[in-house]
Amino acid sequence: MLRALLITVAILAGALGGYLYWLHRAHAYIHVRSLTAPPTRQAVAPRTRILLVPGCERSFLVKVGELVEPEITPSATPEALATATRLYGRPTHKSHSLIWSQNAFTLTEPAADRLRLTLETGHVVQTLDDIELGIDSFNAIRAKMRDRNLPVSDALVHGPHTWTYQLTIPSSCGANWSSSYSRTLPETPDLDAQILPSANSPNPAPRAAAFLNRIATEYTLTRAKSQPRYKQDQAGEAGNTL
Question: DSSP letter string over 22-86?
Fold first, then answer.
């Protein structure tokens, strides 16, 4: 008799515990799924930003956090030089060139119509043309231009113990600009053999195939119509106003 009573109590206790657990789960589920509860507000960081580059014909929509350069065009006026100084610091002067040294790249303005970006090893910079220096090979740049139906031209330059390959495209900065991507390699017998045709070759032009799978490391923005550079003392006065 006592044993039967104990079994009955155990069964009832188990049933009650199960019912209470089910009731808790149902209440929690209804609470989570409630359509009357106010939505949780979370601050969402913007994923894109507008980049305005003085001298370019249009603005650029770029991803937040990406290093997109350059943010200037050649500083042919005191106002442009003041903007460059605000962004990159006061330039150094070397052989009539303006130079801004940064961690990931170096900007050099050798003339009033040109601005050159040289990538530092181990970094990636996205240009205004949506080309990634440090990642994109010359073949990749050519493929992107084919997708955009844009023309390309290229050249091989033989310097003092070096070879330089340069690929030029229309610049996204506007019709008054062109963009050139280049890579310089030290001259070696093996590289000469890949570039220079044999003596009996019907085509005496140097061959660029040795560069096409290489990564571009330098970018030059060139103005179609040159503007006179301000004298160095005038440029210095513009910088001193900051």
Answer: HHHHHHHHHHHT-SSSPPPP-PPPPSEEEE--TT-SS-EEEETT--B--S-----SHHHHHHHHH
